[in-house]
Design brief:
By secondary structure, this protein is α/β, with parallel strands linked by helices. It folds into two domains: 4-227 and 301-310, Spore Coat Polysaccharide Biosynthesis Protein SpsA, Chain A (Alpha-Beta Complex), CATH 3.90.550; 229-299. It is 50% helix and 17% strand. It contains ten helices and eight strands. The protein has helices at residues 15-31, 52-62, 77-87, 107-115, 133-149, 166-174, 182-188, 212-226, 229-259, 266-298, and strands at 5-11, 39-45, 66-71, 92-95, 120-128, 158-165, 193-200, 306-310. It has an eight-stranded mixed sheet, with helices on both faces. Strand 2 (39-45), helix 2 and strand 3 (66-71) form a beta-alpha-beta unit. Helix 1 packs parallel to helix 2 (52-62). The radius of gyration is 25 Å and the shape is elongated. Bound molecules: uridine-5'-diphosphate and magnesium ion. Residues 97, 99, 101, 203, 208 line the site of magnesium ion. One of its GO terms (cellular component) is plasma membrane. The chain crosses the membrane at residues 233-254, 266-291. It comes from Luteibacter pinisoli.
Length: 319
């Protein structure tokens, strides 16, 4: 039975590694004999400021398997991957980073697991080479929090490196929300998902585009997109503060009425006011987070715009 493969590679300022990446990926694709229906590599240039698009253009001229999409600006990795998923037309669709942190050599094994009848095979990092202890700790903490608060938890230590079946890709295409936390979306669609463990390499060249500011924002997005637990935290906090204040009030009244103590306690008053003010602001912030999210969704803006394209991809109506 003919079996086709598409590899989606989001690339943002990846001139340093893109050619090397393609050489390695091409070598892997050459060895895959199951691909009688062909393999496509879709490079999505996420509005790079360097020569990434020129390299993609050159690769597309030299290699018939290469297709390219150039987004009109930097929309972020999640949007770039979505553009690739919209353009992919294959029985197995691989998502892989351009920086060679995800070894292309793993693709045949991923596809083999997919063909056993699975819909999503995600690569799970066995070890995080080249990452600081602090990064390891924060990412472990993030997964732990996600597992506790999310209604359908996502697998740990999993990047976006994975292979998806045709119907899994079709399902993902249906999810057009703007707050795209892909790892959560992958888990949300369901179907048969399995993991494959591998050793993750350190970035080959260039810099990671993820600083802690972006990672923290991504974490907040991940939590608020898939859970309303923070709203509940605000509720509980407000409730307990109010009950404590009520009990304390009773105590003060009793003190005056029974023992005739004069009302003292400017410091306690200040502490209580500050505490209540803080708790209210926090609650407001949490609500604001969700209101902002609702606002962003209601605008129903497209997730990306395509500025230029190379090679053959699935004809999709440009968003
Ligand atoms: N990327 C992208 N748009 C962005 C940031 C990153 O398409 O705004 C791509 C990048 O080119 C790479 C992949 O996403 O192929 C992963 O990026 P990076 O290596 O910076 O992230 P990390 O590996 O540290 O998670
Ligand atoms: Mg990387």
């Amino acid at each position: 039975m003919p079996y086709s493969l598409a590899v989606i590679v989001p690339a943002y300022n990846e001139t340093e590694v893109l050619e090397r990446f393609h050489a390695r990926l091409g070598a892997v694709l050459d060895t895959m004999d199951t691909m009688d229906a062909g393999a496509t590599v879709i490079y999505v240039d996420d509005g790079s400021a360097d020569d990434t698009w020129q390299i993609i253009d050159r690769l597309a001229q030299a290699d018939a398997r290469v297709a390219g999409l150039r987004l009109s600006r930097n929309f972020g990795k999640e949007a770039a991957m979505t553009a690739g998923l919209d353009a992919a037309d294959a029985d197995a669709v691989v998502l892989i980073d351009a920086d060679l942190q995800d070894p292309p050599e793993l693709i045949p094994e991923l596809v083999a697991r997919l063909r056993e009848g699975n819909d999503v095979v995600y690569a799970t990092r066995a070890d995080r080479a080249g990452e600081t202890r602090f990064k390891k700790f924060t990412s472990a903490a993030f997964y732990r929090v996600m597992e506790r608060v999310s209604d359908n938890p996502m697998p740990r230590d999993t990047g976006d490196f994975r292979v998806l079946s045709r119907r899994a890709v079709a399902a993902l295409r249906e999810l057009r929300e703007r707050q795209r936390f892909m790892k959560g979306l992958f888990a949300w669609i369901g179907y048969r998902q399995v993991s494959l463990r591998y050793q993750r390499d350190a970035r080959l060249a260039g810099d990671t585009k993820w600083n802690y500011w972006r990672l923290t924002n991504l974490a907040i997005e991940g939590i608020t997109s898939f859970s309303v637990a923070p709203l509940r935290v605000a509720t509980w906090l407000g409730l307990s503060a109010a009950s404590l204040a009520f009990l304390y009030g009773l105590w003060v009244i009793l003190k005056v009425a029974v023992w005739g103590d004069p009302v003292r306690g400017y410091p306690t008053l200040l502490v209580v006011i500050l505490f209540m003010g803080g708790a209210q602001l926090m609650g407001l912030g949490v609500i604001g987070e969700y209101v902002g999210r609702t606002y962003a969704e209601t605008k129903r803006r497209p997730l990306y715009f395509v500025e230029d394209r190379r090679g053959a991809t699935r004809p999709f109506t440009e968003p």
